[in-house]
C-alpha cells in the first residue's frame, strides 16, 4: 500500500469506525489535563476525554465536506459544459452571473449568514457549495474549451452525434482529469471554510466533537495541551494529502492505459 493510500485510509477508518468505539464524549474530568492514565490524549477545554472526542469527531466533518463538494460539482460541471458548448449569449449569462458570486469573499458570505441568524449544517453545506461553484464552473468550462477538445467535439457534431452524447460521452471524459485534480486540492479549502464557519457559530454547535470545531475551541491550549489540537489537525492534513496523492496516482494510471 502506497503512502497516499495510507494517508487517506487511516483518517477515513477513524472517521467511520471511531464513533463505534469512542465511548463517553461528555465532560469526565477537569479541563485541559495532560495525557495520563484513563485519558491517553488528555482532556479538552470542556473536560472531555481527548481520545473519545477525536474518535467520534471525524464523521461530521467528513460528511459536511463531501456533501459540499458533491453539491458544488453536481451544479458546476453541467454549468461549465453548458457554457462551453453554447458560448455566445448563454455563455456570457452564466459566467457573468457567477462572477457576481465570485466577487464576494467566502468568509464574508459566511459572516453575513451567521449575523442574520441563518445557521445549521444544511445552511453551511449549501453556503460552502455556492461559494465554490464559480471556480468549479470556470475550471470545467476552460477544460471543455481546450483546443484539442473543441476539434474533437466539432468532428463528432459533423458525424451527426447528439449534443448530450457528445457532452456526456466525450467531453465529460476529457475533463475528468482536471476535475478530479481540482477536487483533491479543493478538499483542503472546503475544510478550512467549514472550520471557519463553525468557529463563527454558523454550522455545528461549539460543543460538537467535530474535528474542525475541536481544533478551533482548543487552539488557545496548543502549548499546554497540544495533543488535543495536533492529533485532529494531523488527521485532517493526512486526509487532504492522501486525497491528492491517490487522485494523482489514479490519473497517472488512467493516462498510461489510454
Automatic annotation (TrEMBL):
Record CDD domains: TM_PBP2
Keywords: Cell membrane, Membrane, Transmembrane, Transmembrane helix, Transport
Coiled coil, from the record: none
Residue ranges of domain ABC transmembrane type-1 in the record: 58-247
Pfam families found in the cross-reference section: BPD_transp_1
Localization annotation: Cell membrane
UniProt-listed InterPro entries: BP-dependent_transpt_permease (IPR050366), MetI-like (IPR000515), MetI-like_sf (IPR035906)
Top-level taxon in the UniProt lineage: Bacteria
Main location as per UniProt: membrane
PROSITE patterns in UniProt: ABC_TM1 (PS50928)
Transmembrane segment boundaries: 61-85, 97-116, 122-140, 187-206, 226-247
Membrane topology note: Multi-pass membrane protein
Family the entry assigns: Belongs to the binding-protein-dependent transport system permease family.
Protein name per the record: ABC transporter permease
Amino acid at each position: 500500500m502506497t503512502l497516499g493510500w495510507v494517508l487517506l485510509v487511516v483518517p477515513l477508518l477513524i472517521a467511520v469506525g471511531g464513533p463505534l468505539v469512542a465511548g463517553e464524549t461528555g465532560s469526565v474530568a477537569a479541563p485541559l489535563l495532560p495525557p495520563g492514565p484513563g485519558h491517553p490524549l488528555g482532556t479538552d477545554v470542556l473536560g472531555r476525554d481527548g481520545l473519545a472526542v477525536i474518535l467520534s469527531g471525524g464523521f461530521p466533518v467528513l460528511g459536511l465536506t463531501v456533501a459540499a463538494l458533491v453539491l458544488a460539482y453536481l451544479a458546476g460541471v453541467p454549468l461549465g459544459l453548458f457554457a462551453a458548448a453554447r458560448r455566445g449569449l448563454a455563455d456570457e449569462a452564466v459566467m457573468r452571473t457567477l462572477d457576481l458570486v465570485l466577487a464576494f469573499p467566502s468568509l464574508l458570505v459566511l459572516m453575513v449568514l451567521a449575523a442574520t441568524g441563518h445557521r445549521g449544517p444544511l445552511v453551511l453545506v449549501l453556503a460552502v457549495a455556492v461559494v465554490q461553484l464559480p471556480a468549479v464552473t470556470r475550471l470545467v468550462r476552460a477544460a471543455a474549451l481546450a483546443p484539442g477538445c473543441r476539434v474533437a467535439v466539432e468532428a463528432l457534431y459533423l458525424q451527426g452525434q447528439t449534443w448530450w452524447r457528445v457532452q456526456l460521452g466525450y467531453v465529460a471524459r476529457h475533463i475528468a482529469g482536471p476535475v478530479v485534480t481540482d477536487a483533491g486540492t479543493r478538499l483542503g479549502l472546503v475544510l478550512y471554510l467549514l472550520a471557519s464557519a463553525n468557529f463563527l457559530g454558523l454550522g455545528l454547535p461549539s460543543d460538537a466533537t467535530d474535528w474542525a470545531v475541536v481544533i478551533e475551541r482548543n487552539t488557545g491550549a496548543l502549548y499546554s495541551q497540544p495533543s488535543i489540537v495536533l492529533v485532529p489537525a494531523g488527521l485532517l492534513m493526512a486526509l487532504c494529502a492522501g486525497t491528492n496523492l491517490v487522485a494523482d496516482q489514479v490519473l497517472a494510471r488512467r493516462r498510461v492505459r489510454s
